[in-house]
Amino acid sequence: xxxxxxxxxxxxxxxxxxxxxxxxxxxxxxxxxxxxxxxxxxxxxxxxxxxxxxxxxxxxxxxxxxxxxxxxxxxxxxxxxxxxxxxxxxxxxxxxxxxxxxxxxxxxxxxxxx
Amino acid sequence: xxxxxxxxxxxxxxxxxxxxxxxxxxxxxxxxxxxxxxxxxxxxxxxxxxxxxxxxxxxxxxxxxxxxxxxxxxxxxxxxxxxxxxxxxxxxxxxxxxxxxxxxxxxxxxxxx
Lengths: 114, 113
What we know:
The complex is a heterodimer.
Chain A: E1 4-7, E2 10-14, E3 19-25, E4 30-38, E5 45-51, E6 56-59, E7 62-67, E8 72-77, E9 86-94, E10 102-104, E11 108-113
Parallel strand pairs in A: 2-11
Antiparallel strand pairs in A: 1-3, 3-8, 4-5, 4-9, 6-7, 7-8, 9-10, 9-11
Chain B: E1 4-7, E2 10-13, E3 19-25, E4 31-37, E5 43-50, E6 53-57, E7 64-70, E8 73-78, E9 87-94, E10 103-104, E11 108-112
Parallel strand pairs in B: 2-11
Antiparallel strand pairs in B: 1-3, 3-8, 4-5, 4-9, 5-6, 7-8, 9-10, 9-11
């Protein structure tokens, strides 16, 4: 089955600094890699995603990189703000006949200190 | 306005009881899911339905029974609740079974005493 490992489990940065969260996956058939942000009392919300035919994608202060050879992908948040504080999850999807499920990493609690 | 809505938001009940959680999505998506989030925040898929048909059924006790009356609704019924069932349950939907993002509801926090 698909395994997704995520590091670090907690991350504290100063406002304005960058934050990087890394994930590795085990199944080379994975080809879709979304990132979710979960705020307290809410469901996870998609913030950015990347597909296996792309190495990097950027959306304002958020970027994701993918290295298919090494089977790892990372989330980069620049110029962090207090409202970026949340739990972030990476996920990977397997393409399989008639079946698809996202397998999630264990989450990273990001704390941005003002 | 809410895209994926679940009720109730909180559910406190005693061991042995039977309870249901309801989910509705107004996004026109074909696929719906139930995920369980434990106390350590780990998210694990339980079930997936595509156009009312069960397509994923992970290793979940058969006390848990999903029901999809139409493609906009996916309810979760739990029989004989146990302490270990305490968790946050999230409903989600996606446009298809292919690689597309999930849209999550805000969760139902179930506490079994």
